[in-house]
Every structure is written in C-alpha cells, then in structure tokens.
Amino acid sequence: MAYKKSIYLRAKQALDDRRRASEARYWQRHAEVVAACPEIDALERQLAATGAEVVKLAARGESSSAQIARLSAENLELQRKRAELLQTAGFPKDYLENVYTCPACRDTGSCGSYYCKCYLDLIRQTAKDAIPAAAMLKNCTFETFDLSYYSDEVDPALGLSHRRVMTTVVAFLKDYCSSFSPASKGLLMLGKTGLGKTHLSLAVVNRLIDRNFNVYYGTAQNILDRLQKEHFSRGTTDEELDDDLYRSDLLVIDDLGTEMVTSFTVSALYNLLNTRLGNGLPTVFNTNLQLSELEQTYSQRFTSRLMGSCDIIEFHGRDVRQQKRNRA
Question: Of 246, 291, 292, which Cα lies nearest the Cα of 268?
C-alpha cells in the first residue's frame, strides 16, 4: 500500500521548492529589517548560535537540564529584544518568524521521527494531480454525487426506483473503498451514457488515493494508446507505464467500448487484465455496453475473464448530463 516512486519524488521536489521559497521570503524580510535596523542582524546571529549550541550539546550527550534552561532563557531574552527592535523600526514583532508554508515542520516534511501532515497531504495531492483526469477528479466525489437526478418512481422492470438502485450503488462503492485491498475483486460498471459511471469511478479513485493506495485512472482509448506506443517502441520498456497499468493497486479503465477496436486492442486488453489478475491486482471497468455487446465487441475469452474477476454493478436512470442541460 504505497504510491509509486515518481509520486514521492515529485512531492519531495515540491517540498524542497516550498522550503527554498520560505527561505527566500525570510532573507528578503531580513534584508528589509537590517536596512532599517542594523542591530537586529547581530541578534539574529546570536539566536542562531544558541540554537546551534543546543544541537552540539545534544550530539555529544552533554545537554543537562541546567544548560538547556540557560540557553532557553538566553534565547527568550534575545527574542524579546528582537521584537522590541522590530516594533521600534515599524515592523510587526513576528516579522522574522512564521515565514514557512508549514510552521509545524518548517517545510522539511518531518516532525521529529514522523512525516508531517503537510507532507502526507502533499503526497496525496501529487498522486491526484498525476491522474489524467485530475481536473475532473476534485469535483467527482461521493459527496458531490447528486441522487436527486434519479427518479423516485418505481421502474416496473426492476421493481425498484432508479434512486433506490443508485443509492445502493453508492453505498456499495463506499463499502468497497472502506474495505479495499489489492486483493479485492475488480468491478464492472454497466449502464447507458450519462448515468454517473465516470463520476463514481473517480470518486473511488479519490477515496483510495486518500487511503494511500496507488491508483491509476484512464480512458480505454488513452490506456490503449499508451500500450500501442510501447508495443511499437522496439523493445524499450516504459517503467512509468508498468507502474501505472501493471503494478498499481487499482487500475480504473473508463469508457470501455468507445475506443477504436482492433485485433491489437482486443489482445492488449485481455493481456492487461490477465497480467493484473496474475499479479493478484483488481481492475475497475466502466462501459456503456451491455454484456452481450461486450462479447460481440471483444471476445468470449475476454468477456468471460472480465465477468469472472469483477463484481457487476448496473446503473439505471435518465441521462444526468441531459437533465443538467435542460435545467440550465
């Protein structure tokens, strides 16, 4: 249960950028202050020296409570004098403090032996930003899924209302995310266009990334384009593609059936699904096709493998996108 290496590297780079920006802000303020009140420069040096002395004592194991108390008192007095000088010079007394994006870790990403919450949040956001549908991702959550677009009238063919069906679907997917592990079954979401399959697929992606799982999302067309590019790349291996498609904890393939279907794409989809199953990893598919259409479009072998490895979820209702256009 971990993000791929490139996510950590990007998050670390962003953290380093934050720290450099914090330090630049400090030195910019320091220059302003020293220009107006040169005495503060000496106080800043003394403050740094007391801090360095504490570190040296601790490293040598010589830090006693008396020494720490002396240094703490000295440090507090220097801070008091600095605040007075800053206010006299017309600056806020804390003008040379709290310049970090995260004061808790001072933009280092660590609080003692633990990762700071800001760093963990940054890693999660970096993982979400790496999703091809990142612009849609922030708006597609379980909380923003609007069940009011689904009728309360009982559908005679189902014996239930579309809203009751979709309420059950949402509850099932929430439970799926809560209990998810890389050993979970895959999902096959079936239903006509505009019923919320993409929205709820991305809601699953959102929830699982927040739980620190490595999740990759893409349309069938985009994923197959990547596979085709690798296939014709004369034997070179795309490590990023392997991480995304073959090693991610969950792969979500949106709009299955809208891609250009060829002998290559049929074979590539089967191999992708089969490889992930061999690795013990689940895949989520959503499609506008019915089961009979899937078998006609691809192959009996692929459809059988798909149905055997996935829980099937059927979406019912009227086109939500059309309803939203009509309400606008």
Answer: 246
Q: Tell me how far CA of residue 163 lies from CA of 62, 140, 204, in angstroms.
A: 69, 19, 20
Note down the domain range covering 291.
Answer: 131-327
For residue 88 the two structure tokens come to 């006299």
- Range 216-224 average pLDDT: 93
Parallel/antiparallel/unpaired status of strands 160-161 and 154-155: antiparallel
Total tally of structural domains belonging to the chain: 2
pTM: 0.81
Round to whole Å and give the CA distance between 286 and 284: 7
Question: What percent of the chain has a predicted confidence (pLDDT) above 70?
Answer: 94
Instruction: Provide the CB-side half-sphere exposure for 156 (13 A, CA).
Output: 0
- N- to C-terminal Cα separation, the chain: 43
Q: Do 42 and 141 have their domain in common?
A: no
The span from the CA of 275 to the CA of 245, in Å, is: 10
